[in-house]
Input
Amino acid sequence: MFLATDQTVKINTRYDSIQALRGIAALLVVFFHFRSLFNLPNYPLGDNLFSYGGTGVALFFIISGFVMGLPDYRPGLNSMLEFSIKRIARIVPLYLIASIAWCYVTIPDFRLISTSQDNIELIKSLFFYPLSNDHAPMYGAKLFVGWTLNYEIFFYGIVALSILFKFPKLVILLFFGTTLIIIPFYFRDITLSPYLGYKFNSGYLNIATNPIIWNFIVGFFIAKLVKILPKINQELIFSLCLISGFLVFWQMFSGYGTGHGITQSGAGFAVMITAFAWYEKYYSPKINKHLVYLGNISFSIYIWHFIVHSFFEDLFLRMGMRNYLYGFLYGTSMVTITIIFSRYSYILIEEKISNFIKKWMLKLVQRKLTNGV
Output
């Protein structure tokens, strides 16, 4: 046997609307973290507009689950290895480069080769191990936004494990039924709030049991649901898209029930993603190409935005320009620079380096499996 090629994983369609939502999710998080930059001298404009942009994380997670639920995986070791290599090659190179850059930008006299506490924390983070057992659901990462990748990698790992079995959906249900229901029920009171967590002494166990993972699971099974949803009147589905989009918009700016949990912002996002995917499945609307491209580079935007801001903040402080660190123009400039920088990061790191590593690893594993037969 040899490693499965791309043909072993069949994706029914490409959902550009969902890709555009991924880009919007990235911008929500960026504006949330940059919100203080947009405050006016006598009016907290940025705080009022973007205080709930952090809920973009819930949207990210549901979309990740949705994307993982789209392919029809061929059970077996070959498909599992192919899936794992693609996920690792996509995430690790950019995360590695950005985490090191973050340390050089924010830590005075940082040295890459050292046994300092900063380096130990960096290594832990690069292996997706939480730095703390407190502050759910984040639990800490050296690059601040890296906490979400701990959940991403964990979920991908369980999906990879499920591919080894004949009924992967059943494996996923059994595993997360254990970590999200049985274990919490036995040791603690069950909660759906990701901010409470269960405060175990194991970082991985805290990740595995945190209710924020329900976002991935719901997204995964939305993909399965969309596959079987029938074609109905176009206006009905379009109306559902409008209503769900409006409700999400209202919830975000009213602050009602916002949060990272599936019973908070996740619920509205789940309905919206279902409606958008259902509509696109049958009616193929033309999605703005710029929003789709924003979705393509969303990982780079998410990873780099804090680093870009910190770099220019330090630069301005060194130049004695503290008074220029805030304001609508500065905030807009930081968002623009982040998007431009992320575009080139996507081209150089995600398209070139990550793809090179993916192809090299696939060939290497294929050769090993072939020689082992």
Observations:
- Residues 1-12 have pLDDT under 50 and may be disordered.
